[in-house]
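Throughout this review, each integer encodes one residue's backbone shape. One record appears below.

===
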Amino acid sequence: MTNFDSGASGKVALITGGNRGIGFAIASRFKELGYTTVVTYRSGSAPEGLHGVTMDVTDSTSVDAAFKEIEEKFGSVDVLVANAGITKDGLAMRMSDEDFYAVIETNLVGAFRVARACTRGMLKKKSGRMIFIGSVVGMLGSAGQVNYAATKSGLVGMARSFARELGSRGITANVVAPGFIETDMTAVLEESRKNEIQSSIPLGRLGSTSEIAGVVSFLASPEASYITGAVIPVDGGLGMGH
């Protein structure tokens, strides 16, 4: 593995929802690179070797308290990876207001809350990286996922607005848009459904969490210092052209 950021020592990386799946892979990569790596979770504890803090991204008071704890223990956040998200799938005609709002509140408003909380520390340092974990469905759409797709599309406008507001202070904001990735969620799919999915992907396979982590860590590296407002697909070609 290439260590993109030889200056990572002393820097703080915060990954929301970093205790499993894609978030855990990203957090593990940042730890390997030498960052002080903090993950958030709503209950339980941090994975071994990672620092953890309780945070409910749907609650501004919880977010503010978590940032106060992080800054007192480790210093201000240098790299934010806004990864926390939920799904409540269902056909639009049967989707309740509650299921729609719950996904918006976590995936979109929650990402805003943590990004907003990062800005003061990043502005003081005149540097920082905001990386939002989107999805291929944010551009393609997805039947049965009106709420989820809307949030992932919304992250693009959010990241680009942060990029315009904060770029003059050395702060970048980008979106990584995964496609179908090998996680606990895809592991339970029936083989026929998995084969159907793979046949629609030009590379003919599902991606790995480490492939997402590699792109995210690149965006945090000095090599990516002139990339901002970008949407980087990591989807095997599934969403090309969108």
Notes: The CA atoms of residues 45 and 52 lie 7 Å apart. The longest helix spans residues 97-125. The chain has a mean pLDDT of 93.
